[in-house]
Write a structure and sequence with these properties.
It comes from Streptomyces hundungensis. InterPro entries: Restrct_endonuc-II-like, Restrct_endonuc_IV_Mrr, tRNA_endonuc-like_dom_sf, Type_IV_Methyl-Rstrct_Enzyme. Keywords: Membrane, Transmembrane, Transmembrane helix. Pfam families: Mrr_cat. This protein is α/β, with parallel strands linked by helices and 236 residues long. It folds into two domains: 9-88; 109-227, Trna Endonuclease, Chain: A, domain 1. 49% of the residues lie in helices and 11% in strands. It has six helices and five strands; from the N terminus they run αααβββαβαβα. The longest helix is centred in the N-terminal third of the chain and has 38 residues, at 9-46.
């Protein structure tokens, strides 16, 4: 950014003094010219065989010349002042832009109830390209909470487990889901999503039945857009 030019006070004072002297000298010169013109006009008017009209025209010409000189001096002074202001004036501050508003954050799934958690998982599926997303959890859901079609065309069946940090998803939970996800819901990708973790027996059963276990760490990354969605992980 170009820095504004600041002149020393002494320089500015000398400039004002020089301008004042020039203005005074010009004023005296114009007064003398007008006096001389008046005297010449009077002398011409009183002489024999004089032409008063010529004397009057001469006086008018002198007055017009004086007026033009005064106006020219004022215009030059105004131009100097404008140029000086343009040089010494500081640059205007850069406009302050409002902060950019980003996309709203997804809800913190660890702090909501089971029904809201199912809804949040369904919205994550929709956000990342799934179609035909439905929340089917509740009484008689036979283990399925969210049904959808993945972006690559597979039938997705999700069971949601909204547990606290100290409550892990156990083997019995996986066994109940494993008994219905393929046989009843025709899953091509079966996933258990939890806000917590899985016990080792649960992980062992899931591996045998090709059920994807999506724990709280994976869920937070998916939720924040920093990790893969369940259908983006390698096939079991």
């Amino acid at each position: 950014m170009t820095m504004p030019v600041r002149r020393h006070p002494a320089v500015a004072q000398r400039r004002r003094q020089a301008f004042s002297l020039r203005t005074t000298a010009l004023g005296f010169g114009l007064v003398a010219l007008v006096i001389w013109g008046v005297a010449l006009t009077f002398r011409t008017a009183v002489q024999p065989h004089s032409h008063p009209l010529g004397a009057v025209l001469t006086l008018l010409a002198l007055l017009l010349l004086s007026t033009a000189a005064i106006r020219g001096s004022r215009m030059r002074r105004a131009a100097r002042g404008s140029a000086l202001e343009a040089v010494v004036a500081p640059e205007p501050p850069a406009p302050v832009l409002p902060p950019t508003v980003g996309a709203p954050e997804a809800p913190d799934c660890a702090d909501i109830d089971p029904l809201a958690f199912e809804d949040a998982v369904s919205r994550l599926c929709e956000r990342d390209g799934c179609s035909d997303v439905r929340v089917v959890g509740g009484a008689g859901d036979l283990g399925a909470d969210v049904l959808a079609t993945t972006p690559d065309g597979r039938r997705l069946v999700i069971q949601c487990k909204c547990y606290g940090p100290g409550h892990k998803v156990g083997s019995q939970d996986l066994q109940r889901f494993g008994g219905t996800c393929y046989a009843v819901h025709d899953a091509e990708l079966a996933v258990v999503v939890t806000t917590s973790e899985f016990t080792d027996p649960a992980l062992g059963y899931a591996e045998q039945c090709a059920i994807l276990c999506f724990d709280g760490t994976f869920l937070r990354a998916w939720n924040n857009g920093t990790g893969p969605a369940p259908w983006e992980l390698p096939a079991l």
